[in-house]
Design a protein that fits this description.
Length: 198
């Protein structure tokens, strides 16, 4: 009977022991899977973060490249425009001489058309004339070459423009050279009288 009990008891014990081992094994496996799952999740988060950083870096690189390309383009235009300014000055000089000498000929008209066409083409690339005639003196746009008393122009206004100025976009390429009014001639006479009395 003892043997039977042992046989019966031993047959029950190994089954319970087997179930316990399986449960522990399953718990270990589940813990391992959970640990692996946590590691995979951490890797996914790290990779997503890295991807976002790479996308941001690439976007910054793209914007910087476009900005630098635009700057190179602007500088190239600026250099070309600076080289063209003497040509424009000579055309203006030729036109003023033609006007002074009664330039109504076909030749004079041709030069006027060429000058207008050249300014129109350069205008497409951002060149604009600083029109100083009669304007109030602005040191940001004008370069004063002298001051003269004038009855026709108020004080601190341009009496005469001796050389045109030009803007490239919103940037001053060359200031206009101007003669600025120091006020009416009677005021200049009074100032000189007052200076003489001192």
């Amino acid at each position: 009977m003892n043997e039977k009990a042992t046989k019966d008891g031993s047959s029950k014990e190994p089954a319970e022991a087997e179930d316990g081992r399986k449960a522990r094994k399953h718990k270990k496996r589940a813990a391992g899977v959970t640990k692996e799952s946590d590691e995979v999740q951490a890797d996914i988060v790290a990779l997503n973060d890295r991807l976002l950083r790479l996308q941001a870096d690439f976007e910054n690189f793209r914007k910087r490249t476009l900005r630098e390309k635009g700057e190179v383009h602007k500088r190239a235009n600026e250099e070309l425009m600076l080289e063209m300014l003497p040509v424009l000055d000579h055309l203006d000089l030729a036109l003023s001489h033609l006007d002074e000498n009664g330039g109504n000929s076909a030749f004079a008209e041709g030069i006027k058309l060429v000058a207008e066409q050249l300014l129109a083409v350069l205008g497409k690339f951002g060149l604009a004339v600083v029109d100083a005639a009669g304007a109030e003196f602005d040191p940001n746009l004008h370069e004063a070459v002298s001051h003269l008393p004038s009855d026709g122009a108020p004080e601190n206004h341009v009496v005469e423009q001796t050389r045109k100025g030009y803007l490239l976009g919103n940037r001053l390429l060359r200031p206009a050279q101007v003669v600025v009014s120091s006020g009416p001639t009677w005021a200049a006479g009074m100032v000189s009288e007052l200076e003489g009395q001192e």
